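Let us work through a complete example step by step.
Step 1: write down the sequence.
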Amino acid sequence: MNSPIPYNVPPLAGDEFDFIKDAIARKQISGDGYYTRSCESWIETRLKVPRTLLTHSCTAALEMTALLANLSPGDEVIMPSFTFVSTANAVALRGAIPVFVDIRPDTLNIDETRIEAAITPKTRAIMVVHYAGVCAEMDVINQIAARHQLLVIEDSAHAFLATYRGRLAGTLGDLACLSFHETKNVVSGEGGALLVNRPQFISSAEIIREKGTNRKQFLQGLVDKYSWVGLGSSYVPSEITAAFLYAQLNAADRFTADRRETWDYYYKAFAEAEHRGLVGRPRIPSHCVHNGHIFYLLMPTPAVRNEMLAVLKNDGINAIFHYIPLHSSEAGKRYGRAVEPLAVTDDIASRLIRLPIWFGIGEKRIRVVERVLAHLAQCLQSAP
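Step 2: predict the structure and record it as tokens.
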């Protein structure tokens, strides 16, 4: 019996436990201590962003962007429907309306050619999701935003260390959010970060993150006491989380290179199957460098996709589909709206399968490829 192959295994750098012990020894584990500052400094230096604020999740960072955008009931934010619920929840929690736009059939990112038609006098921002670590067409999106005086918010949950025209994801809009959930390339169990690319937002972001208080100014000696000065919540992670993350950040390039190697292996392995029309492989624009976060295949029909998932599960291989499009979900219909039928989104969501990919997967990926190709061959033989 073959051993199971999980979809994801959280990576370990090796220093996590030592850093956690050190955090405890420093006698501050509640957050915003040595390791929080170390993580924020690492990200600011590597990404060259004016300010990074570590958060307890990417969801928290997205909620902070909605507060920074000053969203009010009835405001609208344009985003893809093919994304995780946190993208839309951040908007809906402010009483604003997620406006869903279709995705491109090649990169599965928001279709930049459909954004402008979705803009109304109530539009306040464009939320861009860099799906599978491949950046959206940010130059065009930023030009549209500038014409209409809109904020651009990057949901970069998938895209840590991916680049667009030589620039790192998370530095391409006004605000950006990172995820360090255990399914991501670099992890802290739960965790995230808000990247502030417009310095005028920094002070407000610090207040929001500190439960709506000016505690940051108090710690800097700028005021003699801190108090409630605005809206906010508890978005600060513990030093235990930050210590774990700091070890991971120091291994980020090693983790990324390993995942890209597996991604490249899959890509080459399924070239012939794509040539024969059995599957679709990911498309990476020449001006983008992905980070190996997700490798997916597009099956020819939803039925084949479902059969493939069942076959792989029976063989102990945990391949999975991805998002149920938000516009077709119960809450999506209640809180958001689609500007038009989202045909590409619906089609892609029904045929996509994600293959196991994680740091250290090694030769297990060979069995994944062999089993997928074997079932595709059976499909070809049974086709009329």
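Step 3: interpret the result. The mean pLDDT is 95.
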